[in-house]
Amino acid sequence: MDGIQGAFYMLNNRRLERKAMYAYGRRRFEYHEIEIGKGLIGAAAYEKALIYRTEIPDDYCAITSGLLGEQKPKSILVVPLLQEEELQGVLEIAFLHKTLPGYMITFANEISSIIGQTIYNLKITTRTELLLVESQQMTATLRENENQLRNNAQEMIAAQEELERSNKMLESQIQEVAHSRKRLEALLTNASEFISIYNEHQELVFESPSVKRILGYNDEDAVNGMDPDILTPRGLKTINSLFLYLLETPGGEQTAQYTYLRKNGEKLFLETKGKNLLHDPAIRVSFLIPRT
């Protein structure tokens, strides 16, 4: 088109930003932004119509040339770049001759729509590529989150299964302990021997029914194997020494001899075997098993 100077502007957020230029001299380093409706470029953008001017404003940029030096342009052509009446940018061309042929202006009008469509296509392509990248990143993030959720679910299932196994094992152990206690209670209840069980405070926890029978007392009589009324003083001292030894010796065993008094006043010589099971979590008592 025989232009000696030119600039290309793109629309960005209702403002025109200069993206390229030709023969602008030092001003090519300046950032240039124009509002819609201001100046020749802004007016062409607002009207969406080509502007051809031969009256050049005094403040218009001079044309710089190595052969011609600096000169004011004689005519200016400002062409809006449209895509179906939608503004995409503006093309500014300056000439050193004042009159432009009609075919040149017609050509500028025709090519403006091609350039506008190209800009629009490039914007759509760029936007599509950005959306594609965002979609791929989102897909990767979702896939990573899905894998993490799947791993968490598997870990939770494994933990739940382990908890269920632990609960079953615990229930089995509890049942075994309960059965063991029941068997022990049955053995102690039906034992023909003189069996007494005490806690760490020397308090009677259990005594076999045979105790009263061996000592000659009835079921209604309130007596037990440690009753001082049915122990001789020496026997009471012996039993207390036995307990002191057992309390100081976890798991220890000791035998002692002492004398009981039957209900009828008759003395009964007994030999007692004591064992400390206070530290056994399943039992936690001391046994005394006297023998006549």
Automatic annotation (TrEMBL):
<dbReference type="InterPro" id="IPR029016">
    <property type="entry name" value="GAF-like_dom_sf"/>
</dbReference>
<protein>
    <submittedName>
        <fullName>Sensor histidine kinase</fullName>
    </submittedName>
</protein>
<dbReference type="InterPro" id="IPR003018">
    <property type="entry name" value="GAF"/>
</dbReference>
<dbReference type="Pfam" id="PF13185">
    <property type="entry name" value="GAF_2"/>
</dbReference>
<keyword id="KW-0808">Transferase</keyword>
<keyword id="KW-0175">Coiled coil</keyword>
<keyword id="KW-0418">Kinase</keyword>
<dbReference type="InterPro" id="IPR035965">
    <property type="entry name" value="PAS-like_dom_sf"/>
</dbReference>
<feature type="domain" description="PAS">
    <location>
        <begin position="180"/>
        <end position="250"/>
    </location>
</feature>
<dbReference type="InterPro" id="IPR000014">
    <property type="entry name" value="PAS"/>
</dbReference>
<feature type="coiled-coil region">
    <location>
        <begin position="142"/>
        <end position="187"/>
    </location>
</feature>
<dbReference type="GO" id="GO:0016301">
    <property type="term" value="F:kinase activity"/>
</dbReference>
